[in-house]
Amino acid sequence: MIGASRKAGARRKGTDVRLTILGGGGFRVPLVYGALLGDRAEGRVTHVVLHDLDAARLSAVSRVLAEQAAGVPDAPEVTATTDLDEALRGADFVFSAIRVGGLQGRADDERVALAEGVLGQETVGAGGIAYGLRTVPVAVDIARRVARLAPDAWVINFTNPAGLVTEAMSRHLGDRVIGICDSPVGLGRRIARVLGADPDQAWIDYVGLNHLGWVRGLRVAGRDELPRLLADPALLGSFEEGRLFGPEWLGSLGAIPNEYLHYYYFNREAVRAYRTAERTRGAFLRDQQERFYAEAGRADVSALELWDRTRAEREATYMAENRQAAGAGEREADDLSGGYEKVALALMRAVARNERATLILNVRNRGTLCVLDPEAVVEVPCLVDANGAHPMAVDPLPGHATALVCAVKAVERDVLAAAESGSRATAVRAFALHPLVDSVAVARRLVDGYTAVHPGLAYLR
Ligand code: G6P
Ligand code: MN
Predict the structure, then answer these.
(1) From the CA of 188, how far away is ligand 2's center (Å)?
(2) Candidates 98, 318, 331, 336: which one to mutate for ligand 1, based on the most atoms within 8 Å of Cβ?
(3) Is the CB of 190 within 6 Å of ligand 1?
(4) What is the DSSP code (8-state) at residue 57?
(5) What pLDDT shows up at residue 6?
(6) Residue 378 burial (CB < 10 Å; 0-12/13-18/19+)?
(7) Which fold has domain 15-180?
(8) How is the chain split into domains, by residue range?
């Protein structure tokens, strides 16, 4: 098997770089392709292989990419397939951006949780556990196939819940899988901006798990500028996380949390806002994307323009309920450009060209956070080069943050154990031990509710 994949690789020209995107019919694929089109340097991606289970989605996204590539010399060639093994053979990089159960699954995750009065967000709390239980078996199957068919490939995991899914895959791929998220970079950039610092010259001291981390410092030329921000309510009120959490709470914490910590620190308010919203985020995106995929195939429609309008609407409404609960107002124009495709490209460049870069990534802990074991995937600044991503030494977290990180990692471990053993009791324990699920009885009903709506959870016995 390994020989076969090597041969496929060897047949290609030396300068060929092949990127396979799993979930290649996904809505955010054009962001990635747009970033690739802007990369003119030696060693750039020359061939993109889109894989998806749904051929219609593949053709809709292919139309968008074709419009993006029009007039761009040497645009990376794009091919599409519904055959997973074919997509993986010969890959140098694999982006895994799948959504098991689709956006209907995401909406169901939210609905079942909200009916119990707890959060159903796709990465946090009950919803994140349900989504993890559905996704881990699929991600593990992919990881095993990559290990067999493309053992030298680097896998970049976009699939949420990203930390948990990366950890599941790392059990089969070791350090060849790296998880990414744009929220830490976005946060770092916003803090640098309000402090008048160049984000590319700043060292961002960010530590935690995916969607559960804190910026404890921002050093420019060796000097920590964060205390200046924390002491200035006006400055704190001038960016997204400052408005979301409020200057007073940030002053008390002495750190700036990732926006997803709003679900923890203001749980009651967030749950209330989600319960009273006309539609949940998942249901909104489900309806929005249904329209997009239906219309993108029409001959009289520019798939790219349609995609761009749809994307703008998605970004403008991101975390709208949290902002509403906090009275934080609209998002800022600078925050609407997404960014995770930039993280992915920067990571791929650093690995492919041995261009050293410091990026905040999801990797195995080693000894970085001493309260967690070496195999636990954490989200920390990493030095990236041709040998992969190496977590950098960081100061320990304060007690309250350590407690949350350890509690959530224990839940993730139960999700992984339940996915491996098929034990329903272990799945109940995962829900029950989550800090945002307030009763074992609720946890039991959540498992009943989720197994009733998700065929992908039939393995829980
Ligand atoms: C942020 C998060 C991602 C998430 C994305 C889109 O970038 O870090 O994990 O996938 O937002 O969120 P949405 O609600 O639009 O799907
Ligand atoms: Mn994320």
Answers:
(1) 14
(2) 318
(3) no
(4) H
(5) 38
(6) buried
(7) Rossmann fold (3.40.50)
(8) 15-180, 184-265, 269-326
